[in-house]
């Protein structure tokens, strides 16, 4: 059973903001001749790497709600120029909206088990998939989703 990570998406106001940031970074990497992969750098290195890359995802908290996820493909620990251990989380550049769920602020990341992860929004979620993100966010905030 896969294990997931939960992380705040600092600076993003919506799923679209996250998608635009990914697109901009991919274009920049292409122009610079760097590998076109999306990475997110974090200070702490997860200990359960094998479980994470075996079908796990990074779930993003946007404006106080778990809102989207990206599949984790690799975790690359490294030491930065200051001698601090960090890691690159390598992610598929595809953002998948999930059923919104409130989340309080926290630092770093948290493990999220598969049974506790919100469901993807898709064909089997009825009208929820066609509802605008802002409306989903508002209804979830009111406890109606």
Describe the overall structure.
The protein is globular. It contains three helices and seven strands; from the N terminus they run E-H-E-H-E-E-E-E-E-H. The chain has helices at 15-32, 49-53, 133-141, and strands at 3-8, 38-42, 57-62, 65-79, 85-91, 96-102, 109-113. With 145 residues, it is α+β, with helices and mostly antiparallel strands. Strands 1, 2, 3, 4, 5, 6 and 7 form a seven-stranded mixed β-sheet that branches.
Indicate the percent of residues in helices. Answer: 10-25%
Name the overall outline: globular
The number of helical runs is 3
Number of beta strands:
7
Average pLDDT metric: 88
Report the oligomer.
single chain
End-to-end Cα distance, whole Å, is 26 Å
The largest sheet is: 7 strands, mixed
- Cα radius of gyration in angstroms: 16 Å
Find the structural class using helix and strand composition: alpha+beta
Order of helices and strands: EHEHEEEEEH
- Ranges where pLDDT stays below 50 over 5 or more residues in a row are none
Quick structural summary:
By secondary structure, this protein is an alpha+beta fold. The chain has helices at residues 15-32, 49-53, 133-141; strands spanning 3-8, 38-42, 57-62, 65-79, 85-91, 96-102, 109-113. Strands 1, 2, 3, 4, 5, 6 and 7 form a 7-stranded mixed beta sheet that branches.
């Amino acid at each position: 059973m896969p294990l997931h990570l939960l992380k705040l998406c600092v600076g993003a106001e919506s799923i679209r903001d996250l998608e635009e940031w990914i697109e901009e970074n991919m274009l920049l990497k292409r122009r610079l001749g760097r590998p076109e992969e999306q990475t997110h750098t974090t200070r702490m290195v997860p200990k359960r790497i094998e479980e994470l890359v075996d079908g796990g995802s990074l779930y993003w908290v946007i404006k106080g709600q778990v809102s989207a996820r990206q599949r984790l493909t690799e975790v690359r620990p490294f030491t930065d120029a200051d001698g601090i251990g960090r890691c690159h989380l390598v992610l598929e550049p595809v953002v998948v909206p999930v059923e919104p769920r409130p989340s309080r602020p926290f630092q770093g990341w948290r493990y999220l088990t598969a049974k506790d992860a919100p469901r993807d929004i898709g064909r089997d979620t009825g009208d929820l998939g066609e509802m605008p993100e802002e409306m989903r966010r508002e209804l979830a905030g009111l406890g109606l989703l």
